[in-house]
Amino acid sequence: MSERIVVVGGGLGGVRSAERLREMGFDGQITILSAERHLPYHRPCLSKQIITGEWHPDDALLSFSGDLDAEWRLNSPALHLDPKTQSVWVPGGEEIKYDGMIIATGVDARAMGGAPRHDPRVHVLRTLDDAVAIRKNIRQSQGLVAVIGGGFIGCELACSVRHMGRDVALIVRSPALLGGVVGDDIGKKITEAHVEHGVRLATGVGIKHWVRQPGGIGIHLSDGQVFFASCVVLAVGASPAVDWLRGSGLVIEDGVLCDATNHVVGAENIVACGDVARWPNLRFNGAVRRVEHWLNAVEGGRAAAENLLVGRSHAKPYTPVPRFWTEQYGMRVQGAGLPVLGTDTTDVNGLTGFIADGKLVGIVGLESPGKIITETPELFRQNTVDANRPVWTQPAEEETKVASTPEVLPTTQIPVPEPVAARASSVPPSVSSSMSPPLQRRRHSRSRPEMVRVGGGRARP
């Protein structure tokens, strides 16, 4: 009987990890469990081309290897995991056994206390269906569109709504857009661009209460302002999709706790990747954290697959320099590293450099792709990885919010046909080729899945 690896999560991290399994010569069964009814798609376009209608939903579908040969289980979210028996359950009471597992469930849109989420005019944006519903609501209504939250998603949404010619209000709890993530100077320029393009901006405010009426929803703010909106989008962050892991014995506070090689702490033959994984990046002080960036799902998915196959004893630490981007009103903001660690800023060849403990830990630039490419290697140079450092040490309690670490079980190596080209990601082949997905309109070519099952029902080719 052949080995089976179950990938839980049918998004970017899941499909890229499955591809890497095949690239490394794994010839067993790959089963991909997806909570969604769609095959994998690009999420960055949801707040842009899908909302505006520039792209049809099919345009967002991801390309993936024609040699994947995986069993896709759409509309089949994982419901429960038992690491001891190496079993996962899906709707209908079906138990699926695995020899290895890759957790790539990503994040869910964060709930907002007091918001009338049951009202069809109130939305979140996480999935393709969410984006389609928001676009439909905007097109079928008149009046103000209110976006709650001033992070990347909230700002991109406001930009898209203005592109559609609709009135939009951006309601933000923090005093500045993007929460200081990109630095004060760039944050100020982004804020000014929104105001110049007619966005009604309310910063440094909270929402006192909501009033639902037939013609719209009244939003009463803490500073006395009242907005009356026909469509509301809550963009207040995301939470790791870990509810299905409750009762499994794994540590799931703010994501799935992993060691530096992506192996899940306290489990055997399980790795995690992408937004849901919380691991110590030994390149950046080893503090345990999650990284919610597009490229981390790609690189992390590939590294997790590699380390699963070679086994914990032969695995290599996953030590990326994260990269991210956003585009608003034709202005492109790009960043690398972990600016959130910075305690001070400095100028780096015209970029905003973030400094911590005397080292450059992040850079952000506005309309400076060439400089980002030039300066990113400096982040690798200044943030080296100690090859002798153990892949797991109990971090300080304030960093992990975990009182103790579960026992790390010995991980057996899953047989892989020779040769095995194991190479956990540390330095990307080229910075320029790994910044972000192309945004030009195109219909993505993609392989045809060998088997797709919807909701655990009969397979269809």
Automatic annotation (TrEMBL):
Record Gene3D superfamilies: 3.30.390.30, FAD/NAD(P)-binding domain (3.50.50.60)
Cofactor names: FAD
InterPro entries recorded: FAD-oxidoreductase/Apoptosis, FAD/NAD-bd_sf, FAD/NAD-binding_dom, FAD/NAD-linked_Rdtase_dimer_sf
Gene Ontology CC terms: cytoplasm
Organism in which the protein naturally occurs: Lentzea atacamensis
Residues covered by region (Disordered): 390-461
Compositional bias annotation for Low complexity: 419-438
GO MF annotations, alphabetized: oxidoreductase activity, acting on NAD(P)H
Full protein name: Pyridine nucleotide-disulfide oxidoreductase
A Pfam family reported for this protein in Swiss-Prot or TrEMBL: Pyr_redox_2
Coiled-coil features, chain-numbered ranges: none
The entry's keywords: FAD, Flavoprotein, Oxidoreductase
Domain FAD/NAD(P)-binding: 4-301
Transmembrane annotation, as ranges: none
